[in-house]
Amino acid sequence: MRIWGADGALQLDENSFTIRVALSILVTFPVGGSKSNQDFAVPGVGPGNGTAIVIPISDYSDSQMQFETEMLEGVARVYNHTRTFAASTISSGTMRLIVMRWT
Asked: What is the β-pairing status of strands 93-102 and 50-56?
C-alpha cells in the first residue's frame, strides 16, 4: 500500500514496515476452570516488535467472554480472565491466537 500526503509526497509505502504472522493457533480454556493462563513460544517476538490478539472462531456462549493477551519476550500469554480487575469473570471456550511480528 502507498499513501501520499496532501502535498503529494509519499508518506507510507511497502518498504516502511512489514507485518507477518509469527503464530496462529487455537487456544481453549475448559468450562468451570479457575483463573489461569497459557504460554506459547514465539522466538524472536516480544513487546517491542510484536502484538498478540485473540479472535472468536464462533458465536459467544454464556461462559465465553474475551480472553486477554500479553506479549512477553519470546512468549505470547493468553489469560481466561481480565488481569487488572480482581472480580473478572472466568472465560471458557476456544479462540484463535494470532501473533504478529512487525518491523
From this structure: antiparallel
Q: Enumerate the domain spans of the chain.
A: 18-102
- What distance in Å separates the CA atoms of residue 18 and residue 15, rounded to the nearest whole number? 7
Contact 95, 55 (CB under 8 A): yes
pLDDT digits (tens, 9 = 90+) for 52-91: 999 988 877 665 677 899 999 999 999 999 888 777 788 8
Residue pair 52/97 in contact (Cβ under 8 Å)? The answer is yes
Q: Which helix H or strand E contains 40, and what residues bound it?
A: strand 37-41
| Entry field: residues in the chain | 103
Instruction: Phi first, then psi: give them for residue 84, nearest 5 degrees.
Output: -90, 5
Give pTM, 2 decimals. Answer: 0.80
Predicted local distance difference test score (pLDDT) of residue 61: 67
